[in-house]
Write a structure and sequence with these properties.
Layout lengths: L9 H4 L15 E4 L6 E5 L10 H16 L2 E5 L4 H13 L4 E5 L4 H10 L4 E5 L8 E6 L1 H15 L4 E6 L4 H21 L4 E3 L1 E2 L4 E2 L8 H13 L4 E5 L4 H11 L3 E6 L2 H4 L8 E7 L1 H13 L8 E3 L6 E3 L11 H16 L12
Parallel strand pairs: 2-3, 2-4, 4-5, 5-6, 6-14, 7-8, 7-11, 11-12, 12-13
Antiparallel strand pairs: 1-3, 9-10, 13-15
Helix pairs in contact: 2-10, 3-4, 5-6, 5-11, 7-8
Amino acid sequence: MPKNIALRSAAAIGAAVLFLSGCAQAPETDGASSDADYCARMVTNSGGLEDRSFNQSSWEGLERAADEFGIDAEAIVSQNETDMAPNVQQAVDTGCQFILTVGWELADATISQASENPDLHFAIVDEVVEGDNIKPIVFDTAQAAYLAGYLAAGVTKTGIVGTFGGGNQPPVTLFMDGFVDGVDKYNQTHGTSVVVLGWDKETQDGAFTGDFEDVNKGKTYAESMLDQGADVILPVAGQVGEGAAAAVLEHGNSSLIWVDNDGYETLPEEFRPIVLTSILKNMEDAVVAIVGADIDGDFNNDAFIGTLENNGVEIAPFHDLASLVSAELQAELDQLRADIISGAVEVSSPSTPE
């Protein structure tokens, strides 16, 4: 199985740029370009660049790599599922040396193109695939979600919290497993009985909208949980989660936990008052480091696995809702984080990346 790797310092790799063959401009893309010979292309899933999720964070990483290393970087945006394989082909056809694909839906196209183009280097976000020239970028989000679940159980006033996903897939259920286990940990520690709606870790079944784009579905699912008494909602559903944010805002006296990036910063400003925290994937730093390593001639196919220990995952600041988190609860979260890193507390899931 692939091994964990540490994020490389951008400062250490930024100066070593290899001048390789040039590449053509990809049509209908958004990007930041330069005259450097090295170029990189990113292919999104159908969520688009501004999905307030992993497409956006991955692209911000590639944009930063373009700025730091002086390379040409562009994103090819998929509008629907049928676009994805042709878009990976389009990325290959540019002649660029590095191609980043985002999401499990692009796994087959990535594997196929990597096999046909062994001299190119590929990386894929949120999926572990095998290939000599493919680097998986995955995150053990259960670790950070464990903290978020403990936090949710510590701030709920109703004793009920809820979560739902876009689809029953490992990158989604990994969040949900960690969240449920974090709530259970709080219950064990405090003798409480906080209930989680929407996910049963034992059966690996729960509430799913069936897609990652329909905001109305997110609102409907969140409203149902709020009506059942939940006052903290964790949507793991990309853009669909914005519907949950709208439901939480309208409901009042409840809060939202976002995923992938800091929802306080990426969601519309109107939602700031209800964002308790976010379960973060540090995709930006990972992408910068991996592109820099490729430029430096140090590309390998070992998976990057983001953890609490290597700062690949974390929970965001509490921002406007910091007053809900007592000093005692904060101290417990700090100790829990340390215990997860040390191994004193084991966070496990059938979907844990290896």
